[in-house]
Amino acid sequence: MNAKQRLIRFFTLSAVGLLIGGAIAGGSLLFQKNEQITPSRIVAKGIGGPFTLVDQNGKTVTDKDYAGQDKLIYFGFASCPAICPAELQKMADAYHQLPKDMQAKIQPIFITVDPERDTPDILKDYVDMFLPNMVGLSGTQAQVDAAISAYKVYAAKVPEGDGYTMDHSSFIYYQQARGEVVALFRTTDKADAMAQLIQEIQTEK
Ligand code: NI
């Protein structure tokens, strides 16, 4: 190998190295970009299940009453000072960002983790503050416990002053009509990202 051949070989190997390095860098950029677009996409096996609860009009309902629709579901309690109202407002904001035909496919649902205080009457006024078509579900403690367990929610009564508050996990579930929970929205997810992911999910169907 003479000097010229060695030089050519050096540049060839360098070019190959740059191409491989570029591909890796490009791939990881793409991966990061995708992660940003769909921060909450999950395959949640075993989350969600049958429930029997009481709606804000005092009517006993089951999961079958909402079986034909996709659902946005949030578990919380009406006297929650900050997190629950913020998350329900975010759900409403995301819902309003969707095209009307996509809105029509979704039933927004609030399920209380505090049935002792959240009677149907209380929930009627509460859900109405966020979306006129939001359903507010309560029930006996046993009925609510079963729903909490089906959606793997954490909820616990914590003494506060003369009474109590509720400590609880905070996720907005997107559950498809056929039953699968396909997205979990966290408190850090913004309404526009949520609306974007819901549109992607509905478009895939
Ligand atoms: Ni709360």
List keywords for this structure.
alpha+beta, 6 helices, 23% strand, two-stranded antiparallel ribbon
H/E element sequence: HEEEEHHEHEHEEEEH
> Which word captures the global form?
globular
Strand elements, count = 10
- Major β-sheet annotation: 6 strands, mixed
Report the end-to-end length measured between terminal Cα atoms.
61 Å
**Ligands bound here?**
nickel (II) ion
pLDDT averaged over residues: 85
Strand order of the largest sheet: 1-10-9-4-5-6
Count of DSSP H/I helices: 6
Helix content: 40-55%
The amount of beta strand, in percent, is 15-25%
Residue runs with pLDDT of under 50 for 5 or more positions: 15-38
Q: Which class of secondary structure composition applies to the elements?
A: alpha+beta
> How much is the radius of gyration in Å?
24 Å
